[in-house]
Each structure stands twice: as C-alpha cells, then as structure tokens.
Amino acid sequence: MDKNIYLLGGVPTVGKTIVAQKLSENLGIQYVSTDTLRAWAIEMVGREEYFKELPNEVDLKVEAYLGNQTPEQIFNREVAKNDLMSRTILAFIKANWVWDKYIIEGTGIQPELVLKLKENHNMKPIFLVYDEKDLIKERIYDRGLWSEPEKYDDNYKEKEVEWVWLYNEYLKSESKSKNILTVVVDKLSVQEIVDKIV
Predict the structure, then answer these.
(1) Which among 12, 26, 5 is positioned nearest to 128, based on CA atoms?
(2) Is there a domain that residue 93 lies in?
(3) What is the CATH number for 58?
(4) Could you say which of 20, 97, 118, 136 has the lowest number of CB atoms within 10 Å?
(5) What is the model's pTM?
(6) What is the pLDDT of residues 128-151, one digit of tens each?
C-alpha cells in the first residue's frame, strides 16, 4: 500500500518537534520522532549491536565527544550516525502497517533518504533551516544540546554551534541540489512554518 508520509528534517534546535506537533494537530495525523525510532531499534537489537559500525558512539562522555574533536569531525560523525538512522526509518516504514498517513521528524532525516523513499511512497519532505548562525548560538546557550545548559561547559557549546552550523549549511546545499523544500525558520512562528508546509 502506498503511504503518504511527511518527512521533517533539520539540525538540532531548529524546532522540528514543535512543528511536527502542530502539523499533526492541523492534519489530524500521527507523528513519530527519529529519537523514538532509534530507541525502539536499540531496544530490539541492543546498543552495541545498533552502533557496531560506530563503536565509539557507545556511552560517550561530553569530554570525549566535544572536547577531543573539531567541529568538522563532529559534523562528519553526525552524518554517519544519521546514515545509520536512515536504515531504521526505512525499517519502520516497511513494518508500519497501521498508519497510511503520518509524519516522521528528526535529525535522522537525510536528503539521500528522501530520494530512496520517493521511489515507493508519496513523500512530502521538508527541511527546516536557519539563515542566522546567532540564532543557533542563542538556542544552544539557552536550552543546551548535549544536556541541560548548566551541566556542561560553555566551551563545548561553542563547538556545538560550529558543528550545527556546518550541518545546517550542508542540509541547505543538499536540499537545493535535490529540489527538496526548505523553510527558513528564523523569523517565523510555528504556525507560519506549518502554513508553508501544507
């Protein structure tokens, strides 16, 4: 059966979850996050098995992840993790026989995944992106990314700002080259973002 699926991607802090919630309400359909799908997959096969291609991902500490790597290295690891996540998303779509129309949101949504899925399903892919790097900094310092902001050093937050910006620019470039809708969120309300999607 053909499925109608909204794929809502973007970098951390860009507002994917709250937009997915609002879109879900407006359309009267379910949504699921890639964080939930990853937790489901890890529960099924175990953390070490899930991350066997990325063995250093298991039980990382903030110092090891953010302290010992450049923003470019972190960005590359995040892309590798999301390539792995793409397989989990594909497995979920194949196994999900309950919903025929729904939303999947999360950083695990990649432009390459969109192209694979469009071959067999009706897809509406959207990437939420920033135009201003300062907004990423503001949100990371306010909300934290690795953890709550007060639980880790500001030097690590600076590195997070840098790798998230690299990822943001990568998504903008890849989406443009693949003719995938992007919505710049900087000056828009959640409802305005949803209006651009529907």
Answers:
(1) 12
(2) yes
(3) 3.40.50.300
(4) 97
(5) 0.91
(6) 999 999 999 999 999 999 999 999
Would you place residue 55 in the very low, low, confident or very high pLDDT band (cuts 50, 70, 90)? low
Structural contact between residues 15 and 185, judged by C-beta atoms closer than 8 angstroms: yes
Is 185 within 8 Å of 198 (Cβ atoms)?
A: no
Give the range of the structural domain holding residue 179, as residue numbers without chain letter: 4-189
Q: What's phi and psi for 126, nearest 5 deg?
A: -140, 135
Residue 149 belongs to some domain of the structure = yes
| Within a domain: 16 | yes
> Is the pLDDT at 165 greater than 90, yes or no?
yes
Cα angle: 64, vertex 68, 74; to 5 degrees: 85
Domain count of the chain? 1
